Amino acid sequence: MGLQRSPSNKPNVQPKPIPETKNEENKVNGYSTTNEPIFLDSSYNSWVVKHPSALRSFDRMMKAIKGKRIVVFLDYDGTLSPIVNDPDLAIMSKEMREAVCEVAKRFPTAIISGRCRDKVKEFVQLNDVYYAGSHGMDIMAPPRAAKSSDGKNHNIAPDKKIYRILEEKTKTIQGARVEDNRFCISVHYRQVREEDYGMLEETVKSVVETYQEFHVTEGKKVLEVRPSIEWNKGHALEYLLDTLGFSNSSTDVLPFYIGDDRSDEDAFKVIRSRGHGYPIIVSSIPKDTGALYSLQNPSEVLIFLKKLAR
Fold first, then answer.
1. With contact defined as beta carbons under 8 Å apart, do 293 and 86 qualify?
2. Is 12 exposed, middle or buried (0-12, 13-18, 19+ CB in 10 A)?
C-alpha cells in the first residue's frame, strides 16, 4: 500500500509547549533557563527510583541488547512533539524528525497514536515508518514493507452524526475542541476552565451512552469516543510484531515503546508480559505506570533517540 504525499506548507511558528508542572516552564533538560540545576521534589525523586531515567540507564540497556533485534514504537503527542493548546499545532521539530528518521534506518519503527493516521503522517513526514492511527485501529506499512503487509483497519468507526452532535453540544463550553480521528473522536479540554470540565464530561457521556457500540475513555486532557471492541495500543504493538515476523521471537527481540499517555499503558503491559523489552514513560511528574523507565519530556526523548540511532 503506497503512501500519500504529505503537504509541505507547514507553519513556521513553533507553539509554546504546555508545562505539566509550574517548574517545567523554566526547565530545559534538567536545568533552568538561567542554567541553574533544578532539584525536583521528593515525590518525583522517589518515583524515579522506581522508574529510572532511560538516559542514565542507556549504557546498561545497550549491553543487554547485544545480539538482539530492536523494534521501536513511539507515541506522538507529548513524546515526539510537545503538548500544546491547539492540537493542530503539535508540530515535531526538524531535529526530532531527523532523529526518528535515523532510528528508522536502523530498526523497524512504528508511531502509534490516538490521532487519525493521516494526521500523524502529515506531522511526521517520513516514509520508512509504520503509522498506526486511532490507537492502532488503522495501521499502514511503509512502501518497502507493503508487499508483505498492506496494513490493518477496523470497519467500526463512529457515525458522523456523533461527531456533529458533540460539536453542537460542546460549542457553548469555552475551550472545548472536537477532533474527528476517523476511528475515534477526541474531545480536547486542555483550554477548558476547570470548573467547566464536569459539564463537558457529562455532555460527552450523555451523547455516547445512546450508542452502545461506542464508549468514552480519558487520556491526557482529552475525552475519546472509541468503538467498544477489544483493541488498543497493546494489540497494535502485538499486531506489528507479528507483521514483522517477531511474534514467536520473544527472547531475541527487544521492543522499545516510548509514550506519555494513559493509552500507552496497554502497550507497556504487553511488553512487560513478554518479559523482554523497554517500556518508557514520558513524564515530569509522578504517575501510576507500568513503564520500567522514564524520560522527562520530548527534549529527553530526542536525546535518547539520537543515542539509540548511534
1. no
2. exposed
Phi/psi at 236 (nearest 5 deg)?
-65, -40
Q: How far apart are the first and last CA of the chain?
A: 30
75, 180, 260, 266: the catalytic one is 75
Q: Which residue has the cell 483497519?
A: 153
242 given a catalytic annotation: no
Where are the alpha helices (H) located in the chain, listed in sequence order?
A: 42-50, 58-64, 94-106, 117-124, 160-170, 197-208, 233-243, 265-274, 298-309
Q: What's the chain's Rg over C-alpha atoms?
A: 19
Q: CA nearest 181: which of 200, 192, 166?
A: 166
Share of the chain above pLDDT 70, in %: 81
The alpha carbon dihedral of 196, 199, 204, 207 has a sign of: negative
At residue 273, what are phi and psi to the nearest 5 degrees? -70, -25
CA distances from 197 to 21, 53, 156, 216, 257 (A): 19, 33, 28, 15, 31
| pLDDT tens, position by position, 136-164 | 888 988 886 544 445 555 555 566 888 89
pLDDT greater at residue 224 or residue 129: 129
CB proximity list for 101: less than 8 A, separation 6 or greater: 126, 128
Single pTM value for the model: 0.71
Quick check: 280 and 294 in contact, CB under 8 A?
A: yes
Give backbone dihedrals phi and psi of 269, rounded to 5 degrees, phi first: -60, -40
